[in-house]
Write a structure and sequence with these properties.
About 45% of the residues lie in helices and about 15% in strands. It is an alpha/beta fold.
Length: about 280
């Protein structure tokens, strides 16, 4: 894969210790890019137990790891449900780095409270998923694209979608609706930005061992009377056994594809949605 030396990448949702955002930041930095990362200020109740126990500091811890590779890294706290904060984020990154070459829209709403039949789904929860999973991607793209166009060197936008972008499941109405919509947005933005040599693609992971907070997993662990870490370990083992390739997907697997789509080798790939699932879904 070609070097990303001299490139600047902005990655949203990058504060999790085992998350796709962190893995992507480290992967792109290893290829030579300077990194801007953002996440929402998360309360302790929304942190995985291991992050609380290890005194993980979210994007600040990720930034320390990126800087250890010799690359520059800046951190930004941003609530992606607020349009003005997204606009300010893009402006701040451009002001500090001079440009944005790569935008990775990776943040997602915390799943769990949405996992109910559609007639029981609270409208506020529905709106929250729209805000974070879809509207925030539209806004980040809307605000970043003019800077990429003005810079005149093309660009890369990669959206983190899901296998739920291609197959709906019971009690997944809010999540799947936003992720299906994300693929439509990806295709339309790809055509809008193609004249400017800016590509827009999506990655569609299956179940990933991210350890990010899930209200659904928390509730299941409480129902079984076991610690959340124990429940997750069992789930990871089950998902690995069910995967044709014999293990659960790790964040690094997704980051590797994001890095390729951010590279010069992917210059003629746009509007696509690539599965990273070990063979659990072909679509």
């Amino acid at each position: 894969m070609s070097s990303l030396q001299g490139k600047v990448a902005l990655i949203t949702g990058a504060g999790g210790r085992k998350g796709i955002g962190r893995s992507t930041a480290l992967k792109l930095a290893a290829l030579g890019a300077d990194i801007a990362i953002t996440d929402v200020a998360r309360p302790q109740s929304d942190l995985p137990p291991q992050e609380r126990g290890d005194q993980w500091r979210g994007i600040e811890s990720v930034a320390d790891e990126v800087r250890a590779t010799g690359r520059e890294c800046r951190t930004f706290v941003c609530d992606l449900s607020i349009s003005a904060e997204i606009s300010d984020l893009i402006d701040a990154v451009v002001e500090q780095f001079g440009k944005i070459d790569i935008l990775v829209n990776n943040a997602r709403a915390i799943i769990g409270k949405d996992r109910v039949p559609i007639w029981k789904l609270d409208e506020a929860e529905w709106q929250h998923f729209l805000d974070i999973n879809l509207t925030a991607v539209y806004l980040a793209t809307k605000f970043a694209a003019p800077h990429m166009i003005e810079h005149g060197q093309g660009g890369r936008i990669v959206n983190t979608a899901s296998d739920a972008s291609k197959r709906g499941k019971a009690t997944g109405g809010a999540y799947s609706a936003t992720k299906f919509g994300l693929l439509g947005l990806t295709q339309c933005a790809a055509l809008d930005l193609a004249p400017h040599q800016i590509t827009v693609n999506a990655v569609c992971p299956g179940s990933v061992n991210t350890d990010r907070m899930s209200y659904q997993e928390q509730a299941a662990a409480e129902e079984q009377g076991v610690p959340l870490e124990t429940y997750r370990a069992q789930l990871v083992e089950q998902l690995g056994q069910a995967n044709p390739l014999g293990r659960i997907i790790e964040s690094e697997d997704v980051a590797n594809l994001i890095a390729f789509l951010s590279s010069d080798e992917a210059a003629m790939i746009t509007g696509q949605a690539y599965n990273v699932n070990g063979g659990t879904l072909f679509h």
